[in-house]
Amino acid sequence: MSLIVICSVAFDTLETPHGRRERILGGSGTYCSLAASFFTEPKLVAVVGEDFPEDAIELFKSRGIDVQGLKIQSGKTFHWEARYGDDPNQRTTIKTELNVFGDFRPQLPQDYREADIVFLANIDPDVHEDILSQVKSPKLVAMDTINFWIKTKPDPLLKVLEKVHVYFGNDEEIKTLAREPNLVRAGKKLLERGPSFIVIKKGEHGALVLGKDSVFGVLAYPCEKVIDPTGAGDSFAGGFLGYLDKIKAFDKEEEIRKASVYGSVMASFTIEDFGISRLKSLRLEDIEKRFSQFKKLVSF
Amino acid sequence: MSLIVICSVAFDTLETPHGRRERILGGSGTYCSLAASFFTEPKLVAVVGEDFPEDAIELFKSRGIDVQGLKIQSGKTFHWEARYGDDPNQRTTIKTELNVFGDFRPQLPQDYREADIVFLANIDPDVHEDILSQVKSPKLVAMDTINFWIKTKPDPLLKVLEKVHVYFGNDEEIKTLAREPNLVRAGKKLLERGPSFIVIKKGEHGALVLGKDSVFGVLAYPCEKVIDPTGAGDSFAGGFLGYLDKIKAFDKEEEIRKASVYGSVMASFTIEDFGISRLKSLRLEDIEKRFSQFKKLVSF
After folding, report:
1. Which superfamily does CATH assign the domain made up of A3-298 to?
2. Do B224 and A185 touch (CB under 8 A)?
3. I need a surface site. Which of A106, A288, B11, B255 has the fewest CB within 10 A?
4. pTM over 0.90, yes/no
């Protein structure tokens, strides 16, 4: 049982219209596991350098995150620098220093290999295959990727997709991978490649979840205060998968719907402050309150 | 009682990835009144040239649309030419020949002046004032406009806004008019200028409806077949206002929510074929069926 999250843990330097933060804790694994930690006890798989601070590891532990799979390697931690415009979708990457993340080839600790849910985030598709071979009999494999891998390694990626149950992608990525300009048709084409659900993340416009015979739409929470959009998508995945792991549901459509709303709820909190600040101060009752507000938001 | 629609009636020449159509019936008034005609008997106010075909007028009449306010003037009908890319949001206007629409100064027929609902579409804001002075005691004034007027006549526009109950705009227009980059805050700023509801149209991402103490989100129907996006926004307004006129509700939040869904339903049909083709073949049961599908789409 449990959820393993194979992602990056990084330092982020971020500039938004609301300020600048230097080398704060970031990376998809950080956002995803913190968001999931409100629902379950995720197991993190990532690599950091010797410069990675002890208090960040303590933070993970304090949230019940298993860090056995967090490898500390000689060298520096992955560092990413980006700037956002007035429109949160306008993001410019200024620097990507992969450092120890560059040749990350995860070896899963023994008790991670029994996981129910495996989340493969933005890593080389060839590494995805290797990780999956280490997990005994996962009930749900989820994957997220980025345009870089879609463009450079589409074939290995489509091959991994055959083993994936839930695929997360943004609208651009889904269209590119499916080679189809209509978003719904693109999602349906990817469903034919294996996954049971395609979760199309649309940023401030929410997400569309396509199943074999179902369509579900979840809005993004209408935020008046978007301080830093970093980590929204990873928080979505964390809320989504954390919820499914908590209730031990792996393919029920009604639970996938709720999981999507929890995903959108977690993303809506993350963007309210820089980095993981809002996730750190968050309480379970804030999450449940916003979940109810999502119901009200779409009821007619 | 009843709904008056003050809009353009035009010929459109359209090119989309699915084909090209020359000088087909279009204009905001055409889409809006046809969409509204499934709910009520709208009264059209527009101007066309001597080249306007009799069968188009017959079509309006056959749908129960009052055409007393459709003035035929010496000269040519408004002609607009546009091209869409693979992404339906990529629209290039190729030609705008205003012709008789250029100096459109509507005089409302006597029985139009008793209207409950007035829809002021994309016309010079100074003309809006003049029209409103002709209507006795409207219960709901709705307005839509375009970036051209927002940029060239923001002050007269904001003045009209004081008399408007429902303002329709796309996300870009709302942000520009409010001079605020955050969409939700922009909408709230406009609410302070008079309207009870701001309907933010987001194309394929649906719409956000902001009230003084409420937020409602409606999705766009996930269409696999977007043949021609022209008229989606006007069909939304037609469905929205037609429904409110039918049930004689003018400010109840729960009815505004349903009206928004009917708006999105009508828009979703319009884009399934070129011009008004889909609206012509549409039946009431298609509308009700899709309304139910919208419920299913967001339920969790």
Report:
1. Ribokinase (3.40.1190.20)
2. yes
3. A288
4. yes
